[in-house]
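BUG: 3D viewer hangs when loading the predicted structure for this chain

Environment: internal workstation, default settings.
Expected: structure renders.
Actual: progress bar stalls at 90%.

Input used:
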Amino acid sequence: MPLHPQVEALLAQLQQLGLPPLGSLPPQQARAVFDQAFLPPPDALKPVARLENRRIPGPGGEIPIRIYAPRSATPLPVMLHYHGGGWVILNLDTHETICRDVALAAGCMVVSVDYRLAPESRFPAAAEDCYAALQWVAAHAGEIGADAGRLGVMGDSAGGNLAAAVALMARDRKGPKLALQVLTYPAVDAACDTPSCKENAEGYLLTLADMHYFWGHYLGPDGDRENPYAAPLRARDLRGLPPALVLTAEFDPLRDEGEAYARRLQQAGVPTTLTRYDGMIHGFVLLAHALDDGRRAGEEIVRHVRKAFGS
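Structure tokens produced before the viewer hung:
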């Protein structure tokens, strides 16, 4: 299928911004440029009944979190959200839209986690922060009006990587139990050698060079690219993981690895839905304010969250 006309128009708009190549920038400067560029427009932010910023204990110091809750009786089921950005850029603010939308439409609490970024904090810092946040929510559910018996994880790109890693950690470390994992165009393998990496290496927002930049900062020169908590596709056994929704985009370097992970989950007996959005690029859900398929993907996520939580 050809590139969707809405995507073509969006890419043209982004080109007019004159953003520098990511690899030409040191991480701190990349954050200053790209975090601002990917903020959602104010009119895309739906009001929620409760929005609370907190700081919780973590393995490397306090972890900032942001709690979103709809107008609903407590206790609420909870989706832990891990933002994308290659473990290097982006933040809670860039991903406000999906958090608000899921909280409102699915009738659940969303807890967005501001994990440590690389290269200042390399793997496993981000993954351990994300797992620590899950543990904290489970242990303090009563305090925040949550239901510790109904927990899930979600994320896009690097956040999808972290959601998959946390699902593995929760299985391996005997809890907390998860009802769902939502992996949106997840980065699950550091090899970056699939056909989609070559086919979509340039011209579709995320480039293959960007992925080398991100993995290089996240793992460092001596990082373990076989560690399943860094590269979940390398896990030997995927049995016993929570049900999964995996979303991919046709014109995305990460398409093939995300779909390979979904197939492996299915082969391991994990109830898994895989949906490829044809004509779309990496980041299309983050850009739902401009892309109809981004909104449709958000609706698909909501349906799976509601089903997982029985709401």
